[in-house]
């Protein structure tokens, strides 16, 4: 059985913050729903301050989306290791998330609708 994945425009404007700093804001974000998992907001790369992100060697593979590349967030107060992921070459079924970034919400990293 395959996990159903749906991708749709995320309603409204979304912002991501780390260590209190705004990393990006977008009204063009995508919402990815995968099975029973909580929805994930994917931000267009051009709406994120890439100067805050540092590419890492970490990779994971999802059978439905492909290989994910990771970034750490460099804030004034700390580094959030592998807190951001991107599918550089996603599978055809989820091609819309190419050139988008998703963030692990954690202590100090917030993704929210504004």
The CATH homologous superfamily is called: Domain of unknown function (DUF427)
Number of strands: 10
Strand content: over 45%
CATH fold name: Metal Binding Protein, Guanine Nucleotide Exchange Factor, Chain A
Any idea how many domains? Answer: 1
Tell me the number of helical segments per DSSP (H or I, 4 or more residues long): 0
What's the CATH class label? Mainly Beta
Strand order of the largest sheet: 1-4-5-9-8-7-6
The separation of the N and C termini measures 36 Å
Organism: Sagittula stellata (strain ATCC 700073 / DSM 11524 / E-37)
InterPro entries: DUF427, DUF427_sf
Protein name: DUF427 domain-containing protein
Domain DUF427: 15-105
Fold topology:
Elements: E1 5-9, E2 14-18, E3 21-26, E4 30-34, E5 40-44, E6 53-62, E7 66-74, E8 79-86, E9 100-103, E10 109-113
Antiparallel strand pairs: 1-4, 2-3, 2-10, 4-5, 5-9, 6-7, 7-8, 8-9
Summarize the structure.
By secondary structure, the chain is an all-beta fold.
Any overview of this molecule?
- This protein has 114 residues and is mainly beta.
- It has a single domain, classed as Metal Binding Protein, Guanine Nucleotide Exchange Factor, Chain A.
- Helix content is 0%, strand content 54%.
- The protein contains no helices and 10 strands.
- It has strands at residues 5-9, 14-18, 21-26, 30-34, 40-44, 53-62, 66-74, 79-86, 100-103, 109-113.
- The strands form 2 sheets. A 7-stranded antiparallel sheet has the order 1-4-5-9-8-7-6, with no helix packed on it. The chain has a 3-stranded antiparallel sheet with strand order 3-2-10, with no helix packed on it.
- A hairpin with a 2-residue loop joins β2 and β3.
- It is globular.
- The model has no long low-confidence stretch (mean pLDDT 95).
């Amino acid at each position: 059985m395959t996990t159903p994945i749906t991708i749709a425009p995320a309603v409204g404007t979304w912002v991501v913050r780390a260590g209190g700093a705004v990393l990006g804001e977008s009204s063009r974000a995508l919402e990815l729903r995968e099975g029973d998992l909580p929805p994930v907001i994917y931000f267009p790369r051009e709406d994120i301050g890439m100067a805050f992100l540092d590419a890492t060697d970490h990779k994971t593979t999802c059978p439905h989306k492909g290989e994910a590349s990771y970034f750490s967030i460099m804030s004034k107060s700390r580094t959030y290791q592998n807190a951001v992921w991107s599918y550089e070459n996603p599978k055809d079924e989820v091609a819309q998330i190419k050139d988008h970034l998703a963030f692990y919400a954690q202590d100090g990293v917030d993704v929210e609708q504004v």
